[in-house]
Amino acid sequence: MEPFSINILGCGSALPTGRHGLSGQVLNIRNKLFMIDCGEGSQLQMRHMHLKFSRLSHIFISHLHGDHCFGLPGLISTLGMLGRIGDLTIHAHAEAETLLRPILNFFCKELPYKVRIEPISPTLNEKIYEDRSIEVFSIPLQHRIPTTGFLFKEKQKDANIIREMTDFYKVPVKELPRIKKGADFITSSGEIIPNNRLVKPAAPGRSYAYCSDTAYSEKIIPIIEGVDLLYHEATFLHKDLARAEMTFHSTALQAAQIAQKAHVKQLIIGHFSARYTHCKDLQKEAQSVFSNTLLANDGMCISL
Questions:
Q1: Phi/psi zone of residue 91: left (φ > 0), alpha (ψ -120 to 50 degrees), beta?
Q2: Which side of the chain, N or C, has fewer Cβ within a 10 Å radius?
Q3: Is 74 helix (H, G, I), strand (E, B) or coil?
Q4: How far is residue 244's CA from residue 253's CA, in Å, rounded to a whole number?
Q5: pTM reported for the whole predicted model
Q6: Distance of CA 152 to the CA centre of its chain
Q7: How far apart are the C-alpha atoms of 36 and 213, rounded to whole Å?
Q8: pLDDT digits (tens, 9 = 90+) for 152-198
Q9: Which residues are catalytic?
Q10: What is the C-alpha separation between 117 and 179, in angstroms, rounded?
Q11: Minimal CA–CA distance to 62: which of 177, 199, 214, 175?
Q12: How many whole angstroms separate alpha carbon 74 and alpha carbon 104?
């Protein structure tokens, strides 16, 4: 099976600590790399995790708080020094153009490639990227400033040909594409061979949802319903609910409630407040509601 993996560069909240760096992830989907958020230190962590800079072509920024985007100028500069020539596309809210362009004009005047900023709406759930393998959708989140989550969905592959059966019925090669897409086959004698006798279903497409930073919001549930893996922020323990509500963040218990109600297959919690030295307590709290909960950690790689 082709790779679909999530590499955690950093999973802390606003303050970096000796335990956790700032927010950043890199998805490897069929050997294409997609970055989600780019806190300080993201490019160094990519080096530590042996992720190839040359395969990175799209960056998705959830919101314009520094712990999610201050690493961008350094990464863009590094890509230039490495001789990149292909365009780099940054999917972010429209204000990113105002924020980032002057920095690039000052520090990166002679980049050998173009940096394109594709604006995304923080209020809409819509498709924002597509290629032959995947689709990416925006997820409106509830935070102090406009914030967007991201849903990565692998496209469903065509069915797999059962070679023994197509050979048995002498199916011409030119008919195989139609059969893979669901067509029956009619033999030279007029017999109709049902499609399900000639193919077996392909593995279902995999899916990953990233939801950080956000207050508890059940509005996202229909969007992330049934995903294979949900990354949901769990900045606070539930005993600190008042602080979570004041800062528009979630507790570990609330993250688990979202996972349970959305019937996701697995939950990973992150974006931990620096006040907690034992993040296992956050995992324990989430597991009291949703048992299949992982604790994010810098340098972690999860394969779907």
A1: beta
A2: N
A3: helix
A4: 12
A5: 0.91
A6: 5
A7: 12
A8: 999 988 888 999 988 888 888 898 889 888 999 898 888 999 899 88
A9: 67
A10: 41
A11: 214
A12: 10
